[in-house]
Design a protein that fits this description.
alpha/beta; Transcription Regulator spoIIAA; elongated; four-stranded mixed β-sheet; 2 domains; 4 strands
Length: about 375
């Protein structure tokens, strides 16, 4: 094996000889930076004895530097096999450099358009999912024998009964906070008894259904997205469809019916604990006894106000189930996608629940309810 050499018969001519291989180029690699780059150069390769991919990469790098600096390059007397190898090396080097370049920063308007397109695509997919679930619901109502009641009972327990402690505790504390904040102002005007109106209306119409829905969205909505997302990643959803089982009938409808039952009952429980917390604070801070609180409570609250709070719960339940299951079915890839769509389900559920509650408030105000 002869070492690779470079000779310069003239200032514009390079003569390459020897073995341009991984082992034979050690002596010439350091000379490559000394060649003129801004003048015409003729490279004579007839004396190259051997050329492998390493040597082709070195020559491709030299030729690229000549072209980038405006130098003129002429290669003479290269065998067809070596020329083909050099062409492959130049193509690979160009591909590596193209991949290494960071993508140009997109314009703000383009980024805004892409985000708008993504939101529109997700909205269309959500409408399609609601339509598929509605078709599954119609099929279940038309054929009640194939409806699965055991998953409904299981979801009532997991989303309803198991949530009683956290819902009751937070509602009780919220009732205490509302009564405590109102007591500071009502005491100034000697209107202590009106703390009953404050606690009763705020808890039964707004706070109890809203806080219960938010807790369930974070607790059960995330569980729905994680469960279905994991099944989607592990291809269990595809297996169901292969077997002719509707994923909506098996996974979505039991959760939907269970939460339609559980969330109104949780709201009633939250009403009770919230009023109990306000009653306790009213006696401690304002001296309003339990008996006085109960008598005023009957006068302050009407059946309409109570039913308004309860009536919001089914709508909130539908939002939580639809968003949680929808994000679960959109999960693709691996565990990272499961976590990402679970987070989205919680954020979107809470956002839509608050929006729906605000819409209810505006509608009831216009209807004078």
């Amino acid at each position: 094996m002869s070492a690779a050499t470079i000779t310069r018969p003239s200032p514009q001519e390079l003569l390459l000889s020897g073995d341009w291989t991984g082992q034979g180029m050690a002596a010439v690699v350091g000379q490559l930076d000394d060649f003129p780059l801004n003048s015409g150069v003729t490279v004579v390769t007839a004396a190259i004895a051997r050329l492998d991919s390493a040597g082709a990469w070195v020559l491709a790098g030299l030729f690229r530097r000549l072209r980038e600096h405006g130098g003129k390059l002429e290669v003479r007397n290269m065998s067809p096999a070596y020329a083909a190898l050099l062409t492959v090396a130049e193509g690979q080097m160009a591909a590596v450099q193209t991949a290494a370049k960071p993508p140009p920063p997109s314009a703000k308007l383009e980024a805004l358009g892409r985000q708008g397109g993504a939101v529109l695509e997700q909205g269309i997919a959500l409408l399609a999912f609601v339509g598929e679930s509605a078709v599954a619901l119609a099929g279940s109502l038309a054929h009640p024998a194939r409806f699965r009641w055991r998953p409904v009972l299981f979801n009532i327990r997991s989303a309803g009964f198991d949530a009683l402690p956290i819902v009751g505790l937070l509602s009780f504390l919220l009732g205490i906070v509302v009564a405590y904040q109102g007591a500071a102002q009502l005491r100034l005007y000697g209107a202590n008894i009106f703390v009953v109106d404050l606690v009763a209306l705020s808890m039964l119409r707004e706070f109890a259904p809203l806080m219960t829905a938010i807790i369930v969205a974070g607790r059960s909505g995330s569980a729905y997205a994680a469960q279905i997302g994991t099944m989607s990643v592990s291809e269990e959803i595809d297996a169901m469809q292969t077997l002719g089982i509707s994923p909506q009938e098996l996974l979505v409808l039991p959760k939907f019916f269970a939460l339609l039952i559980a969330l109104p009952l949780l709201t009633v429980f939250a009403d009770l604990l919230g009023v109990l917390g306000g009653m306790l604070m009213a006696q401690v801070q304002l001296g309003v006894s339990f008996d006085e609180f109960a008598k005023r409570f009957v006068k302050a609250i009407s059946l309409t106000s109570y039913l308004i709070g309860i009536g919001k719960a089914p709508v909130f339940a539908a939002i939580i189930v639809i968003i949680g299951c929808f994000q679960g079915f959109r999960t693709k890839g691996g565990a990272d996608s499961v976590g990402r769509h679970t987070t989205r389900s919680v954020v979107q559920s809470i956002f839509l629940v608050v929006v729906a509650d605000a819409a209810f408030s505006v509608a009831f105000s216009m209807l004078d309810l």
